[in-house]
Amino acid sequence: MLLNNNQKLELYCVIVFSLFFIILLQIHLMSALIAGLLTYTLTLKLDIFLSSKMNRFSNKSKLISVLLLSIVISIIFIGGFSYLFGWFVGMAKNPNQAMYNIQSIIDSISSTLPDNIKEYLPDDINEIKYTIILYLKEHVLYLQSIIKRIFHTLIILIIGMIIGLIFGFQENRRNLKEQNIIEYTPLTQTLKICLNRLVLVFQYVAISQVMIALFNATMTAIFLFIILPIFTIYLPFSKSLVIATFIFGLIPIIGNIIVNILMFFVAFTVSFKVALIVLLYLILIHKFEYILNAKIVGSKIHAGICELLIAMLFFETLFGVVGLIFAPIFYAFLKLSLKELELI
After folding, report:
1. pLDDT tens, position by position, 32-42
2. Is residue 268 within 8 Å of 275, Cβ to Cβ?
3. Res. 120 pLDDT band, cuts 50 70 90
């Protein structure tokens, strides 16, 4: 099948986008792209909503949407840092109380462990202090590198969000001038088509992630409030765990890991066997969610579940967790582009 000039140009842009994605994965900047796509998409959606609801300020709806998103993002980051800073300051001001709380948790955990495991746990507060100080001394460089990596990732995310907000604002300014016909070059027009397709695919994946978060929260609620009580097992902080499951579930892969750790340790305070049962249940849920994710995204781009699962496995092998997160976006973008070109 011979391609016309427009198809050749679009295929060239798809290849450029694909190479750009791979380079970003290699240099660990994909988180910035995902953050930018998120704020860009939210800006466009919020602008459409505000312009339809606020006829009087329709010309300024984009500016208002950018300001609202900027305020929300600032509140989230400032609130999160304030909470963590206050938590660390509280521990520093009253270290004895912190050690006492740790000792209480260890005592409750040790009462449920077999005897051959108990001997590896510290016996008193002094031993806990000694163990923590020894660990910090032995792993100080490793901890410093982790802290630097976390701050580096946060800075990348913030920069990506800012870029997304700027692009979203500029896109609307162009739309406001649409009455003045602007003639784009063929390459610019094709790049815009590819960008719009990427945003569309990102919306598919984002909707999929929200549905997965709802699925995880629902299954967790059923497990905590129905299944476990049948066997007279009650986990503390059950309501908080369900809410945390939904909130962290909006973050692909990493959010699930955080929730799994929280639930495992909460279950550990009840019983070692309960902790193992909870861990097994969570593993089963999260394995099933890969299939659910592939099913939701695949239905939008007419891709089979096996196709997306293979793409996720391939990208996870090559690029790690970030590759696993980005695999549905990349594969959906690539297949949708090839379908538009009538190559598949």
Report:
1. 888 888 888 88
2. yes
3. low
Which residue is it, tokens 């999929």? 208
Residue of 247, 216, 244, 207 lying closest to 42 (CA atoms): 207
What is this structure's pTM?
0.71
pLDDT of residue 176: 52
Among 245, 248, 224, residue whose Cα is nearest residue 236:
224
- Dihedral angle, C-alpha 204, 209, 214, 215, nearest 10 °: 100
- 99 and 129 Cβ atoms separated by less than 8 Å: yes
Q: How far apart are CA 193 and CA 180, in angstroms?
A: 20
The rounded Cα 183 to chain-centroid distance in angstroms is 38
Q: Residue 105: what pLDDT?
A: 61
Q: What is the pLDDT of residue 100?
A: 63
Amino acid making up residue 306 = C
First to last CA, the chain: 11
Least confident of 208-222, 294-308, 310-324: 294-308
Q: Tokens for 96, please give them.
A: 């004895």
Q: Name the token pair of 169.
A: 């604002």
Work out the burial of residue 226: count CB atoms within 10 Å of its CB; fewer than 13 is exposed, 13-18 middle, 19 or more buried. Answer: exposed
DSSP-based three-state secondary structure for 250: coil
- Distance from CA of residue 293 to its chain's centroid? 14
| H or E element, residue 185 | none
HSE-CB of 314 using CA atoms within 13 angstroms: 11
Give one DSSP letter per residue of 80-135, joined into a string.
HHHHHHHHHHHHHH-HHHHHHHHHHHHHHHHTTS-HHHHTTS--SHHHHHHHHHHH
Nearest to 62 by CA among 72, 71, 74, 49: 49
Instruction: Record the tokens describing residue 45, joined without a space.
Output: 């959606």
Q: Which of 117, 122, 90 is nearest to 105 (CA)?
A: 122
Residue 332, token pair as written in the block: 């959906």
Contacts of the segment 132-140: beta carbons below 8 A, 24+ positions apart? none
Give the CA dihedral 29, 30, 31, 34, nearest 10 degrees.
140
